[in-house]
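Form 7-S
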Amino acid sequence: MPLNKQKIFIVEDDDFLLEMYLVKLNGAGFEAEAARSGEEALKKARTGYQADLVLFDIVMPNIDGFEMFKTMKMENLMSNAVFVVLSNLGEKKDIEKATQMGVDDYIVKAYFTPTEVIEKLKKLLENKK
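Output:
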């Protein structure tokens, strides 16, 4: 087991989902941290916080996931992170928009169990190395 756990930063405004993913990710050997909004995520990133992977929702109050991602890219925040959308928005236009913006992957919540999501994240991080 590596001494430096891989860090996953979850940005999700649904408290139930957020807590469940924090427990699952920490249990899977990751160091998981969370933000409950796009603003909170940007604030944390601007203080120098770095993650290996950012897992974020699209539909959030004030600053949605697309806006948060765009701002992080413009300000070069977490520039080495893998960015993955975890959303209920499963329409082709949303997935295409995210892909065109440069996200690394797009997971539709309804199609994957949390365990499958974590397996997908592990593969993405493996491929990043």
